[in-house]
Amino acid sequence: MAAFRVGRGALNVLNSRLISPVLANKSSPCRKIHTAWLLNAERQFTKDHEWIVMSDNVGTIGISDYAQNSLGDIVYVELPDVGSTIEQNDTFGVVESVKAASDLYSPVTGEIVEVNEALTESPDLINKEPYDGGWIAKMKLSDLSQLDELMDEAEYNDFLKETEDE
Amino acid sequence: MLFPRSCKKPKLSMKFFCRYLSNKSRITLPYSEKVIMLNSQYNDPYLNLAYENFMYENLNLESHDVLYFWQNSPCVVIGRHQNPWLECDLRYLKEHGIKLARRYSGGGTVYHDLGNLNITFMTSRARYNRKWNLECIAKALSDRWNLDVDLSPRDDVVVDGIFKISGSAAKLGKYSSYHHCTLLCDVDLDRLNRAIMPRMVATSRATQSVSSHVINLKDIEPSLNVNEIITSVARTYMQENEHPKILSMDIFRKNFTEIHKIKNELLTWEWIFGKTSPFTITKSSLLPSGTKVKVDLDIQSGRINNMAILPNFVFENEINKHLRGIRFESDAVSKAIGLCLEKSAGFQDHTMEKDFRDILQNISKIA
User: Fold this and answer.
1) Which of B13, B17, B126 is nearest residue A91 as measured by Cβ atoms?
2) Higher pLDDT residue, B219 or A34?
3) Alpha carbon of B277 to those of A120, A144, B55, B71, B95: distances in Å?
4) Cofactor(s) for this protein (chain A) (predicted)?
5) Closest Cα of chain B to A25: distance in Å?
6) Quick check: B171 and A103 CB within 8 A?
């Protein structure tokens, strides 16, 4: 999924979900732990609005809040086969929303080790929890250095602002 | 629960996911125009869809948009994630020689014949603008023929505020995108209604179509014809008044082999039927013995995965042996049922035999 162009509204949603919880909870140390998990400093993004979070050499992949917001209500998710090998930037699935069928591009090269079967029954999980219950696939990476090409959350937010300003 | 956790999802071969090229390795068409107009000289739905997908996967759309006009001989085209059994009357299609195709874009089921015009607006991902395209069609029709054409809140092209004349779907990729739509000019509406009137109902997760009241443009304005519509839409899209230069598909002569490879994939049973997500057909009936039974047919990747009878029926396993793994289509099911009947001859209990035959007949009627 690439270069989404949506109005200011989308970015505001993004800000409110991702950034304001940190500001709002500064005084509460307890909540801060939860916020840190939510924010997940290790989450990395592609310009095509996919994200990946690593745990050992397995990465969990999904699409960003901005992406789900631009796509609108998601009605179907076509998942890859477990065991298949996917090259970086190859399509590994399709997300169909009320507006269009969008190809998903893999941020890295690797083997699919698990897919989120819950999306078969509830594709709208991607809309509701893009960074949590709406994950799409888990992948065993073959080249960890590919992660260096990705953006961290702050860089991704800057990238969104730039695309917005264009 | 209708789909137990242990159920396998349909096997999707990776070949159905396209190998999408980076912008550098894409074909740049040797034309200076900002918009390239193409009108397919073919009426084969699989070939026309193959051209469309070839362009989506291979063209560099940075320096120009492509407007692709195409018309198909009678066929039903379902969305990428739809269920053909639940979207159309397969028996009617077969009897009337209407082809069935699954496209790559999302959305609902449509009927095409030579009275329908398909328009594909292919642009770079950044220039994707479905609303603008539809407004362009509406403007072209209202300017040229003074029709009351507008966009509905669902972004459908409607005439006189209510009648739908066009259905849209779209595909978005990293660099390229397309929005395509149908335009009902002079379609056989009786056939349209019958072909996309499903015979079955089932529990399924596939994308469902939204039905609408449709009308032919020709019924509102008898003087219009497809070629004039093409010219008018092309002019409006270019925002110029000159006569647009419209090319044929011959510009892709060199890519013949690749395009035919896509066409052949679109023609496979695995793509058209096998790609359907799991679904269950339930049929209740009263057996000759007076017992009320419910038969559940569980279909996965287009094939029968399991048949369950409620309340329990002694021959359930025997019937399953014959049905499991066969394609869910009338010929294959009838054949399997025939074999099952042959092998299970010699009943002692006549009531049970009647029930057994009745159940089998019911199953063969479902497909």
Assistant:
1) B17
2) B219
3) 9, 34, 27, 29, 26
4) (R)-lipoate
5) 37
6) yes
Residue B121: partners with Cβ closer than 8 Å, 6 or more residues away: B65, B67, B130, B133, B178, B179, B180, B237
Q: Which domains does chain A have, with CATH numbers?
A: 43-144+151-156 (2.40.50.100)
**Residues on chain B touching A1 (C-beta within 8 angstroms):** 172, 174
> Rg (Cα) of chain B, in Å, rounded?
24
CA distance B8 to B355: 32
Q: Is B46 exposed, middle or buried (0-12, 13-18, 19+ CB in 10 A)?
A: buried
User: Which residue type, as a one-letter code, is found at position B120?
Assistant: T
For tokens 């992660």, name the residue.
A147
Count of residues making up chain A: 166
pTM recorded for the entire structure: 0.85
> Distance from B86 to chain A by nearest Cα, in Å?
16
Pairing mode, if any, of strands A101-105 and A137-141?
unpaired
Q: pLDDT tens across A13-61, in order?
A: 333 333 333 333 334 444 444 444 444 548 999 999 999 999 988 999 9
The domains found in chain B, sorted by start residue, are: 35-273 (3.30.930.10), 279-366 (3.30.390.50)
Residue B155, pLDDT score: 81
Tokens representing residue B36 in the block? 């390239």
Q: Tens digits of per-residue pLDDT, B38-47?
A: 999 999 999 9
